[in-house]
Amino acid sequence: MWKYISFALVSTSKFMFTPLAGPAAGLTFLETFIACLIGGYISASIFYFGSSYFMKLSIERQARRVKKAKLKGKAIPVKKKFTKSNRRIIAYKQKIGRYFSYWFFPLFFSIPLGTIIVAKFYKHNRQTFPMIIFFLTLDCFIITSGAYYIKDLVL
Fold first, then answer.
1. CB contact at 8 A, 103 and 128
2. Which of 5, 89, 131, 139 has an alpha carbon within 20 to 30 A of 37's alpha carbon?
3. How far apart are CA 49 and CA 68, in angstroms?
């Protein structure tokens, strides 16, 4: 039981690599797939539906820092809103389209960060969350299949 819970908890943030540990832990393909999928679904749900809260929290924290700096009399450095990394993310969004974004950002940036980015760009679209769930399921199946295929080749 604890193996399944630990796999689900680890896959909430390290979704791409957790299925690779399934064969080493002695889990079957289906056990690994379901445990990792549950963790991915939980993380995607929390961070997609809580994304507006997390973005609001970030803005408030920055405002408190600026206010605190003003009270101390420190010079407040103007924070660039359009940084190099932000520019790169916007360029990817425009070049690759939303379906690729649904797949790419949660898988390669981790589910929490990737889901918040996708929600920031596409929350107005009704199919965004179902597509994130679809691509997480597809990714989990492919990664878990690859891990068990390699295990069978090696052993």
1. no
2. 89
3. 30
Q: What would the pLDDT profile of 28-60 be if each residue is shown by its tens digit?
A: 999 999 999 999 999 999 999 998 898 899 889
Measured distance CA(122)–CA(59) in Å, rounded? 20
> Residue 118 contacts by C-beta under 8 Å, 6 or more apart in sequence?
48, 101, 102, 105, 106, 128, 132
Structural domain tally of the chain?
1
Residue span of the structural domain in which 32 resides: 2-154
Cα distance between residue 39 and residue 41, in whole Å: 5
Distance in angstroms (rounded) separating the CA atoms of residues 71 and 143: 52
> Whole-structure pTM over 0.70, yes or no?
yes
Yes or no: say if 6 and 131 are a contact pair by the CB < 8 Å rule: no
Helix 84-108 vs helix 128-154: crossing angle, to nearest 10: 60
Quote the longest CA-to-CA distance of the chain. Answer: 66
